[in-house]
Amino acid sequence: MRPRKNGFFLLGFCWTASTLLEEITRQKPTLLPEIQVVDFNPRVIEQLRKRGMHVVYGDISQRDVLLHAGVANAQSSSAPCRTYCSKAPAI
Questions:
Q1: Can you tell me the mean pLDDT for 51-59?
Q2: Most buried of 7, 22, 37, 53, CB within 10 angstroms?
Q3: CATH of segment(s) 8-78
């Protein structure tokens, strides 16, 4: 998978990220192709891919995963689940 440039990243996909994605779907669906999700839950990944989302499998606490996903080239990124997941250390 080739990293995208100037996109938006959701790092982890919990209920907060899900709510954000639904709001974007309703308010600004033209942004959806620019959004990339990084998560390690196979069910989440499968469901997001069925919706046409670009998803990278991996643990957001791992620097290599973020580099592979292209977060360094991101226009913006958000880790909405970090507040709720004690396992996700700051990077």
A1: 94
A2: 37
A3: 3.40.50.720
Which tokens hold the place of 75? 């226009």
Q: How far apart (Å, rounded) are the C-alpha atoms in residues 48 and 89?
A: 24
* Predicted local confidence at residue 71, as pLDDT: 85
pLDDT over 90 (residue 50): yes
CA-CA distances (angstroms) from residue 13 to 10, 17, 48, 81? Answer: 7, 5, 10, 7
Sign of the torsion angle spanned by Cα atoms 11, 24, 35, 78 = negative
DSSP letter string, 14-78: SHHHHHHHHHHHHH-GGGGGGEEEEE--HHHHHHHHHTT-EEEES-TT-HHHHHHHTGGG-SEEE
Residues listed for the chain: 91
Residue type, 10: L
